[in-house]
Amino acid sequence: MIIREATAQDLEILLTFEQGIVSAERPFNSTLIDGEIHYYDLNQFIQSPDATLIVVEDNNELIASGYGLIKKSEKDYYNFEVYAYLGFMFVKPEYRGKGVNKLITDELIRWAKSRGISEIRLDVYARNEAAIKAYEKAGFEPLLLTMRLKS
């Protein structure tokens, strides 16, 4: 398996990965609209000096993706000014459970640390137990749970 930065030539496949993420998240989020949804500006992640969009290849086939984005702290009372936000974690179903997501996470953590960033965050649905376990295994810990009420 090869980990590399994504290029514009990868966008078509990456857009299918994005829809795979949307499909996987629908059971956890009843507020998503029907139809095709685009969470990300993937081209921006490829071009931005404050982001990295990586892919994993196996036998010249894209099988996984993830991005890291440097963001400014939302709160002036945090003990960090910037942090790395990780997202777009997708692994093709036939490659799941083989450590591919850990490869991506480890590479994105290395990228953040190489930029002097020690605070690294990501979001995961509270009921997505498999993802929570995977991120905990990578060293992440729960921080905040968003609650909602539909009235």
From TrEMBL:
The lineage of its organism: Bacteria, Pseudomonadati, Bacteroidota, Flavobacteriia, Flavobacteriales. This is GNAT family N-acetyltransferase. The keyword Disulfide bond does not apply. Keywords: Transferase. One of its GO terms (molecular function) is acyltransferase activity, transferring groups other than amino-acyl groups. It comes from Chryseobacterium flavum. InterPro entries: Acyl_CoA_acyltransferase, GNAT_dom, MshD_Acetyltransferase. It holds the Pfam family Acetyltransf_1. Signal peptide: none annotated. Residues 1-151 form the N-acetyltransferase domain.
